[in-house]
Amino acid sequence: MRTIEMFKVFVSYSTQDLKNVAELQQSLVEAGFEVFVAEHAVLPSEHLSAKISSAIAACDLFILLWSDKAKASEWVSQEIGKAHSLNKQILPLVLTEGLNLPGFISDLKYLPVFRDPQAAIAQTQEFILKQFQARQAAARQKKEENAPNFLVLGGLALWLLSQK
Question: Who is most buried in 68, 86, 115, 117, counting CB within 10 A?
Fold first, then answer.
């Protein structure tokens, strides 16, 4: 499967929720997205905190798999804090019914995986695809806006060369 260039997804989770993580990762990779899951991306002897911090900084979307287990994880809360401080877009997927999102992200709309896991994964894929398409459109627009500048610069360069 071809990876959709330059759209990176970071998944934050408790290692006790690895079954859910694997299902999400598989569906997103099959859809063509680049997905960072520390369980598979960090090799033995590598510095976990450095690798995770770098992946969060580089991601386009931070997905939080929120459960009772994730709430109890020190790593998850630190990852949320890092993503929030970097103004990353955060998409919470709630695994446990009735569990509120933490602190600074408590007002985010979430996808209720506990209701219908397959529908939540489909909505996640659709959301990511829309984000990617919006980003591509913005990049195209910026490129088109800059095109006249290149023509002016090219014309100026030709004029300068003809003055010799």
Answer: 117
Angle of the 48-58 helix axis to the 74-85 helix axis, nearest 10: 40
Q: Which domain holds residue 66?
A: 8-162
Kindly report the CATH number assigned to the domain that includes residue 94: 3.40.50.10140
Q: Where are the alpha helices (DSSP H) in 31-116?
A: 38-41, 48-58, 68-71, 74-85
Position 96 in a domain: yes
Query: Does residue 39 surpass a pLDDT of 70?
Result: yes
Q: Which residues contact 77 (CB under 8 A, 6 or more apart)?
A: 102
Give one DSSP letter per residue of 127-148, joined into a string.
Answer: HHHHHHHHHHHHHHHHHHHHHH
Domains contained in the chain, number = 1
pTM (predicted TM-score): 0.82
Q: How far apart are CA 128 and CA 27, in angstroms?
A: 12
Classify the phi-psi angles of 80: left when phi > 0, otherwise alpha if psi is within -120 to 50, otherwise beta: alpha
